[in-house]
Amino acid sequence: MKLASYIRNKQRGYGVWTEGGIIDLSDKLGKKYPSIKALLEQNALSEAYGFINTTPDTSPDDVQFLPVIDNPNKIICAGMNYAEKRLEFNELNPEPTLFVRFPDSQTGHRCPVIKPAGSREFDYEGELAVIIGKPCFHVDVTAALEYVAGYSCYMDGSARDWQHTWYTAGKNWPATGAFGPYMVTLADIGDPQSLAIKTWLNGRLMQNDNTRNMIHDVAHLISYISTFTPLSAGDVIITGSPGGVGKKRIPPVYLQPGDCIEVEIEGIGRLTNMIYEEQTVPVRPELDSSTLYPPSV
Predict the structure, then answer these.
(1) Chain-centroid distance, C-alpha 42
(2) 180-190: burial string, b at 16+ Cβ within 10 Å, e else
(3) What confidence score (pLDDT) does residue 288 get?
(4) Per DSSP, what are the bridge partners of residue 4?
């Protein structure tokens, strides 16, 4: 099952993505579970499965996509987690490199990714996102995948010239982290460590790897992170980017307004976003991102 979050008729909603369109669950389950996060918190995925054979209510072209989980309690990111990437950056530390992203730095599928006006080195990073399905703390690595609700694509946009002694300032500009198009539930992904992962810039293949080449696999990351912080349903772990980022190319290749960036992961889907120049706008509204960013592309 594929679950997407979106704005439809100026209202936040979510539904099941199918080949024939989107089955809107907001009308069917919204009073009990107003979001995918709420669905996970109440262990109610089985209720959503009950509607997968119903007639779709709308087309993907008629919604504005939101991040799959647009209000997670925590977004924890792993850096330097592919062999080729570690070589590019001469990373030698054997332990996971972790940093955080803020929920309001995210945007959805086919929505603008905003190039920060304060950065001249805005880079792309295609990554596998893991969505936690139930609370966990001090999880053994052998049981870690039992706490996963599903997987998605992530484009972890990075202002390299704001990553000084650490990553936080370079990773949290508004609408720089694209998350989607949807969450593919755990049952539909056999082994998260055997998925081809690719990033395309204007149709040019820039990153091409496989999740088997992660230094720290999904189970290890969940176990390691849950050692020091409890994880909740709807929390997101971004598992790192392969080599081939723009900063390490000769000459460097950075994202510019008008570019199309896409992250494709085998068995999951293809996340597509256009790059826009930052505008002088207020803080992102809580209920309608269309007032802040240009229409979906």
Answers:
(1) 22
(2) bbbbbbbeebe
(3) 43
(4) 15
